[in-house]
Design goal:
Blueprint: E1 2-7, H1 9-15, E2 19-23, H2 30-40, E3 51-54, E4 57-59, E5 70-74, H3 84-87
Parallel strand pairs: 1-5
Antiparallel strand pairs: 1-2, 3-4, 3-5
C-alpha cells in the first residue's frame, strides 16, 4: 500500500520534511507507521506526543491504513493569546 505522510509545524521543522510517501504492508496501522518513521527520522522521537489524523480526521494509533490514505502527524499545540492587560 502507498501512504502519503504529512508533517506539520514543529515536526516539519525538526525533520526538514513536509511530505513523504511510504509503501507499507496490508494491515499496517497509523501507530505502526509512526513508529517506523521515528526510526528513520529520529527527530520525531523528541517531539513528545504526536496526534495522528488519517484523511483529515483525528484517529487513534490502532487505526488500520488503506492504500492511498494520507497520514498527518500533528505536534502538541500550546499557547494562545495573552490576556488584554498583558498585551498592552
Amino acid at each position: 500500500m502507498r501512504i502519503t505522510v504529512k508533517l506539520f509545524a514543529s515536526l516539519r521543522e525538526r525533520t526538514g520534511v513536509a511530505t513523504l510517501f511510504r509503501s507499507v504492508p496490508e494491515g499496517t496501522t497509523a501507530g505502526a507507521l509512526l513508529a517506523a518513521l521515528e526510526e528513520d527520522l529520529p527527530a520525531l522521537r523528541a517531539a513528545g506526543r504526536i496526534a495522528l489524523a488519517v484523511n483529515s480526521e483525528y484517529t487513534r494509533a490502532e487505526q488500520p491504513l488503506r492504500d492511498g490514505d494520507e497520514l498527518a502527524l500533528i505536534p502538541p499545540v500550546s499557547g494562545g493569546c495573552l490576556p488584554r492587560a498583558q498585551r498592552e
